[in-house]
Design goal:
The structure is a single chain. The protein is mainly β. The chain is built from one helix and eleven strands. Strands 2, 4, 5, 6, 9, 10 and 11 form a seven-stranded mixed beta sheet that branches. A hairpin with a 6-residue loop joins strand 5 and strand 6. The longest helix is centred in the last third of the chain and has 5 residues.
């Protein structure tokens, strides 16, 4: 099992940057495919970025390609999401997720979720 705790959210103006962190305890993140999802008000949760556990292959939503970067530090057991050139439409609760099978990440049904961290971008 793994417990996930996100941090790094906040409020900022359009064009700014934030780095979200997801600290894991329990099993090491290296044993999971890891990812970030977000949910805006009155919208469904959507995949933002993910990384496969063995190949480290990264996948991004089209809306964040070129602006967001997912990474992880196995030594710190932490997942990151660097977000640049933020836009008001990026406003959402951001969730960290871990999946034993990458197919679960793709389908939006990972094994574990964090509690979320709020990102608010104003124009």
């Amino acid at each position: 099992q793994v417990q996930l705790v996100e941090s790094g959210g906040g409020s900022l103006q359009s064009g700014g940057s934030l780095r979200l962190s997801c600290a894991a305890s329990g099993d090491p993140v290296s044993t999971y495919s890891m990812g970030w999802f977000r949910q805006a008000a009155e919208k469904e949760r959507e995949h933002v970025a993910s990384m496969q556990r063995y190949t480290w292959t990264k996948t991004y939503a089209d809306s964040v390609k070129g602006r967001f970067t997912i990474s992880r530090d196995n030594a710190k057991n932490t997942l990151y999401l660097q977000m640049n050139s933020l836009k008001p439409e990026d406003t959402a609760m951001y969730y960290c997720a871990a999946a034993s099978d990458y197919g679960k990440m793709v389908s939006g049904t990972p094994d574990y979720w964090g509690q979320g961290t709020q990102v608010t971008v104003s124009s």
